[in-house]
Amino acid sequence: MFINNKLVSGSEILREALLKKSAIGAFNFINMETVQGVVEAANEFGVSVILQASESTIKYMGFSYLKSIISAAADESKVPLVLHLDHGSSFEICKKCIDEGFSSIMIDASSLNFDENVIKTKEVVNYAKLFGVSVEAELGTLAGIEDEVEVSMTNAIYTDPDEAFEFIEKTGIDSLAIAIGTSHGPNKGKGANPKLSIDILKRIKQKIGDFPLVLHGASSVYSDEVEICNRYGANLKDTFGITDSDLKEAIQNGISKINVDTDVRIAFLGSIRQSIEENKSNIDIRKYLAAGKRSIKNIALRKLKMYTSH
Ligand code: G3H
Ligand code: 13P
Ligand code: ZN
User: Fold this and answer.
1) What is the dihedral of CA 233, 234, 235, 236, to 10 degrees?
2) Which residue in the list 86, 108, 160, 263 is annotated as catalytic?
3) Tell me, what DSSP letter sits at residue 184?
4) Are 128 and 84 in contact (CB under 8 A)?
5) In angstroms, rounded to a whole number, what is the distance separating the alpha carbons of residues 56 and 30?
6) pLDDT at residue 49 tops 70
7) Class of domain 10-223+235-261+293-308
8) Ligand 1 centroid from CA 184, angstroms
């Protein structure tokens, strides 16, 4: 059973997005304010969103606080929400999240070879299916930093279209994260916005047909947001993200879920830095956090509009 009966499984909303040729925003959260900012945007724009927690966030918040905050969000929300585990590294953590009432999980065994990835993913799928929880898995390697493993741009392994088809058939997953040139964090590309390989995406799509594909490392790393951080004391260098036009093209070619963590972090950080700088005598922390929350709502709105515009 999900932690709140107003939550829906990931596949429920991803299938719908696929038919509409739009994408669902999947935002990483770390606390109450990040959840509130995203959910306010989703409600204002009238679309469902995926709220996702990494293993580090679960450690940081603890299941009890995490579940209470998401359950409150589901109660308050006018649109269906998904609670998703991002980059689950083991069967144990996936099982734990399913048992705790998540409605969607990701098993990321992409660092293993194809056959081992299939075995580990299938084990999770078999368990998740018993509870109606949808499963995302990953094939290929994102350039950049994934978990603690650093993968250089040149060694990035794009997803093989034939393997993608076979992987979906063999595992029974609900969605597949693919590698087509994105990477996690604020320093994508090498001194320029990385170009996505839409050609590989098209070839994957041709092989697998109507099946939800996921784009990780898809933050835009907007220069205006970075500029606010740096103007108020941060030192973010060599920042590059995925351009809106690349994201739109990716959506038109079959991407139905777009993961965003870095843009949430940068928006939150910049607005809090600015608020602290501009209110030096203020000791009411809520003022700073409220600024952070507003900035997350704005960034989420900006993204939701883009993901659903044709
Ligand atoms: O894709 C990974 C996310 O950016 C999670 O990062 O483990 O620091 O929460 P984190
Ligand atoms: P960004 O670092 O581009 O926001 O990607 C986040 C992500 O893929 C989370 O799984
Ligand atoms: Zn990711």
Assistant:
1) -150
2) 86
3) S
4) no
5) 9
6) yes
7) alpha beta
8) 8
Residue whose entry in the numeric block shows the structure tokens 């308050």: 76
| Ligand 2 neighbours by CB, cut-off 6 Å | 28, 86-87, 184-185, 216-219, 259-263
What confidence category does residue 152 fall into, taking pLDDT thresholds of 50, 70 and 90? low
* Statement: the pTM of the whole predicted model exceeds 0.90: yes
Taking the CB of residue 286, how many other CB atoms lie within 10 A of it? 10
pLDDT of 194 higher than 50: yes
Asked if residues 210 and 245 have their Cβ atoms less than 8 Å apart, the reply is: no
Closest atom of ligand 1 relative to the 53 alpha carbon: 9
Cβ atoms of 17 and 256 within 8 Å: the answer is: yes
d(CA 254, CA 179): 13
Q: Does 160 qualify as catalytic in the annotation?
A: no
Which pair of tokens denotes residue 23?
């994408």
Burial of 285 (0-12, 13-18, 19+ CB in 10 A): exposed
Contact 67, 3 (CB under 8 A): yes
Residue with CA nearest ligand 2 atom 1:
217
Report the pLDDT value the prediction gives residue 193, as an integer from 0 to 100: 83
Q: Who's near 235: CB < 8 A, 6+ residues apart?
A: none
Query: Mind listing the pLDDT tens digit for each residue in 28-45?
Result: 999 999 999 999 999 999
